[in-house]
Automatic annotation (TrEMBL):
It is a multi-pass membrane protein. This is MFS transporter. It comes from Nocardia yunnanensis. The lineage of its organism: Bacteria, Bacillati, Actinomycetota, Actinomycetes, Mycobacteriales. Signal peptide: none annotated. InterPro entries: MFS (IPR011701), MFS_dom (IPR020846), MFS_trans_sf (IPR036259).
Length: 459
């Protein structure tokens, strides 16, 4: 929970301080990179950490991630220019790429599927608290203390989390000599990084048809093809190709990808709709979309009880239906709708996300042995990061196509443009129902999911 709080708090605390940071450091046009570079660094390192965790154990990977995240936080707090801050955010992202999947993998190791029903509530409470405390602390630090404490607050949290993992978590990982797939790791980092960067910046930093965009897409695709060929022959591949042949893993990753895209679509454009169309202030707009991040942990905390009673598939389908209903309700809002109506739609979508994201990941983890669980968890979380990048690209392209490049659109122009985003979110939620339908029916009676204890003693 302490380790998870590092990433959860960091994802919500910085948004409220962007204007304060740019007032002191300058570089307002570059501030989107504070988010893009962090997401990129996190996404491309997750699969590598997952494989390393299956090779050397979870504990050293987690401690490394906490250490790198703390170093990045310290450097961010000391940054004197926007360029430096962007670089140091990349360091933070490299650390977060280890912390996020290792928290979930360790939980999968030391708790059985029934026990995780209770554990999930504790982990969900971290995200719930961060969704409230993050914007609040960010505003307080930037207005009354210093924006630098937005990053420096991570240092005591990281120290405590690292100490707890070091002293209290004992695992017996298989200690064997492994040949690390350096070539595969390098190709995956370059190829995935190029594609995600193209998706994040296409249509914003440069046009989709610009040479930079074409080069990144084509080059990234070619590198990933080479990565696939290398992995087929590697003795110990960094991302084994079998993850693409297991139905549970593929369905879980597809659901995770869609969850990432839906989340980014709403968190990016609901505040825009609230401010640009409904005329609310920034604080109320933030609280409106905050209903999404509140609904998620509320339902995730109860998801364990639900899937133990009715199974993974039914739980995921119910979550997908809830997400579709919530997204559908957003299609009915207009310039005369109140903020509570928009917040209610976001809350219902969040409830649906909580009933899809956790059960699908736990089902995929339960289908894997100890030596495979890190890769399975990392693949799921990498899919979510990729979905976030795809969401940014797709929804940004839809809005820009509707607005025609207008910098300051009027409410009458902005409303139909954002409605296209809501329509896209609703369509993705429908596909999410299909992905959930491909999950296994129940956790009991299914040999593939009959995991009651870690195969290698881990705690």
């Amino acid at each position: 929970m302490l380790s998870t709080s590092l990433v959860a708090l960091d994802s919500t605390i910085i948004a409220t301080a962007v204007l304060t940071i740019t007032d002191q450091l300058g570089g307002f046009a570059q501030f989107p990179w504070l988010f893009s570079i962090y997401l990129l660094a996190q996404a491309v390192t997750v699969p590598i950490y997952g494989k390393l965790a299956d090779m050397v154990g979870r504990k050293p990977v987690m401690l490394f991630g906490i250490g790198v995240f703390a170093l990045g936080s310290l450097l961010c707090g000391l940054a004197t220019s926007m360029i430096g801050l962007i670089v140091f955010r990349a360091v933070q992202g490299i650390g977060a790429g280890a912390v996020s999947p290792m928290s979930m993998t360790i939980a999968g190791d030391i708790y059985t599927v029934p026990e995780r029903a209770k554990v999930q509530a504790y982990l969900a409470s971290v995200w719930a608290a961060s969704s409230v405390l993050g914007p609040l602390l960010g505003g307080v630090f930037s207005e009354y203390v210093s924006w630098r404490w937005i990053f420096l607050i991570n240092l005591p949290l990281a120290a405590l989390a690292g100490w707890m993992i070091l002293r209290k978590f004992t695992e017996s990982a298989p200690r064997q000599r492994h040949r690390i797939d350096y070539l595969g790791a390098a190709l995956l980092t370059v190829g995935a990084g190029a594609l995600i960067l193209a998706l994040l910046e296409g249509g914003q930093a440069w046009a989709w048809t610009a040479p930079a965009s074409v080069t990144l897409f084509a080059g990234g695709a070619l590198v990933l093809v080479a990565f696939g060929l290398v992995e087929r022959r590697a003795a110990n591949p960094i991302l084994p190709l079998w993850v693409f042949t297991r139905r549970i893993v593929v369905a879980s990753s597809l659901a995770s990808l869609l969850v990432g895209a839906i989340l980014l679509g709403l968190t990016s454009y609901v505040p825009t709709f609230a401010q640009g169309v409904l005329g609310s202030g920034a604080l109320l707009a933030g609280l409106t979309v905050g209903a999404l991040t509140l609904g998620w942990p509320v339902s995730a905390s109860q998801a364990g009880k639900v899937y133990l009673r009715i199974g993974f598939r039914a739980t995921g389908i119910i979550g997908g239906v809830l997400a579709a209903v919530g997204a559908g309700s957003l299609l009915l809002v207009d310039a005369h709708s109140g903020l509570p109506r928009v917040a209610l739609g976001c809350f219902v979508v969040g409830m649906g996300m909580g009933l899809v994201a956790s059960p699908t990941l736990i089902a995929a983890q339960a289908s894997a042995d100890w030596s495979e669980r890190g890769v399975v968890t990392a693949t799921n979380m990498f899919a979510r990061s990729l979905g976030s990048a795809v969401g940014v690209a797709v929804f940004g392209a839809l809005v820009n196509a509707r607005l025609g490049g207008v910098d300051h659109p009027a409410a009458a122009e902005l409303a139909p443009a954002v409605h296209v985003v809501f329509l896209g979110v609703a369509a993705m939620a429908v596909v999410l129902i299909g992905a959930a339908a491909c999950m296994p029916r129940r956790s009991s009676g299914n040999p593939e999911l009959a995991v009651t204890a870690p195969e290698t003693p881990s705690a």
